[in-house]
Amino acid sequence: MRIPCPVCGTRDRREFTYQGAALMLHRPDPEAGFGEWDDYLHNRDNPAGPTRELWYHESGCTAWLVVERDTRSHEILSVELARDVAEGGR
Questions:
Q1: For 36-75, how does the pLDDT look when each residue is reduced to its tens digit (9 = 90+)?
Q2: For the chain, how many helices (H) and strands (E)?
Q3: How confident is the model at residue 89 (pLDDT cuts 50, 70, 90)?
């Protein structure tokens, strides 16, 4: 699989570290209840199809990326810098 880094261009997947669902960018409020924090920290979906994931370009520019990928085919649908996604509130 090759990931098109917005900073470095298309690179082999081995340059990146998979972190998990991009939902990790949107933490609950510090005052949120136990249930909301438990769900955020421990519960994950395992979708078959398009999903948004957080990847770290460890062997490149060290940027955090939000990669939209089809888990059935590994086709990359879109890639954005995580800082842009977090600032936009998606």
A1: 999 888 887 788 999 999 999 999 999 999 999 999 999 9
A2: 2, 6
A3: low
pTM, full prediction? 0.81
Cβ proximity of 4 and 46 under 8 Å: no
Nearest CA to 78 out of 55, 61, 60 is that of 55
Asked whether residue 90 carries a pLDDT value surpassing 60, the answer given is no
Structure token digits, residue 28:
């609950």
Backbone angles phi, psi at 49, to 5 degrees: 135, -160
Contacts of 17 (CB under 8 A, 6+ apart): 55, 56, 58
Distance set, CA 19 to CA 13, 68, 80 (Å): 13, 13, 15
CB-CB neighbours of 5 under 10 Å: 20
